[in-house]
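quick one, two chains, predict together pls
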Amino acid sequence: MSESLVRVSFTVNGAPYDLELPPRRLLSDALRHDLRLTGTHVGCEHGVCGACTVLVDGAPVRSCLLFAVSLDGAAITTTEGLRAPDGGMGPVQRAFHECHALQCGFCTPGFVTTVAAYLRDHPSPTHEEAREAIAGNLCRCTGYVNIVAAVERAAELLAGSAGSAGTAPDGAAPGLPEDAAAPEPSGGASRRLPPDPSTVAAAPSVRPLADGAGAPPASAHPAGRDSS
Amino acid sequence: MKPPAFTYHRPRSLDEALDVLASLGEGGKVLAGGQSLVPLMSMRLSAPAALVDVNHVPGLAGVEVGADAVRVGALARHSAVEHDAAAYAALPLLRQALVHVAHPTIRNRGTTVGSLVHGDPAAELPAVLCLLDGSITLRSAQGTREVPAADFFLGPLETDLRPGELAIAATFRRPPAGSRSAFVEVARRHGDYAVCGVGALVADATVRVALVGMGPVPVVVDLSEAYDGQRLDEDRARDLVDAQVEPEGDIHATADYRRHLAHVLVARAVRQSGSDRRAA
């Protein structure tokens, strides 16, 4: 089956991309498969779990509930874009690390983006507000206690670094899990996942894409209706 | 969990959008926030042949507060309506209901008008539009028509929207000054669809409630005869509610439990009306 491709331009973590994509390509898949930015994780793929949360023009949204072609002109930020300027962990990522706010880490990218946007708008949340801020993100490991602590710790770090644009002096901790130190904001390839020549991995460029990722599942899964 | 293929249109003006919708007819579906449509497509419960993406049409994102009504444009996100200070001052019920719509992340993208057009009987906004005697503005290449809320919602996920039409705005009428309101609901999980939800509007001697999840479309019940201006006679209110709701049992709740929730939430909504600030 050949699907006609649609051209779309947006930035991801400041890097411009000019792509041609099948219209049905979800933003989550465009980020992971086409741009090789695998920091964004895909959990439920119907808007419930929050793992795929990215920022579009600064606002947290579910990347699995967006068609990439709809984002022409948008500025997208993923967890890779929330690193410190020196390439180490950003304040929210550091707080998660310090507070042991992750175990398997699968949900963490969605928490990091959600929390970063929340603290930008609400710099000093109460404990209850910190809980509410993450209410749309599911974590099956931690029980949330340490994640709430990380929200509060991130608020402290952000308040402390307000004058220095979030650059943490000791931010680049060695042994950092892969996601917080994934590809360069310029769209370069990550260590673990070299760019596939059949997909677009560098900016700016225009190249047609194979549609291997768009194959339908064996069966539909009408499990939830949680996303009005 | 990947959506089926469709052809994509990205009109840059309202006229272009209406022309495309007219040419597509039955096969054309409008994409605004997509927070209901995209998961439906991913689950292969919906497979429109063509999507008309109105996100790049200028002039549709306004929230206008007038003397008689609050008019919400087709591209106003839930979060924009929720956080609009003038809209809240004029019509607190909007924010009171919107905070129950999924989570903030969904509200950042989903649109208020899109939720109305989707017509889910478990959604909050259709009940609010019905409670406030609002209307929907539908435009097509042929012209514009204004449909009252009471005529717009026809059944579960079924509205009076016709092929070729775009819902360009919803108008929520402001109740008399001094009115009070509240919106309460019970959901199985935070941010999930309501098992039962109730919006209440209390003005002087009148009480009206709109119930969510208690029938194929929102159910509005006038409880004024059970209200003495101070307190609600809960037994009489219960009978009035029972006479109009037709809850169905499903995997989440039995019909009896939904009915029980309706009784409890109606009393709670009326009690709570106005307790969180100001007029409706």
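The first helix of chain B runs from residue 14 to 24.
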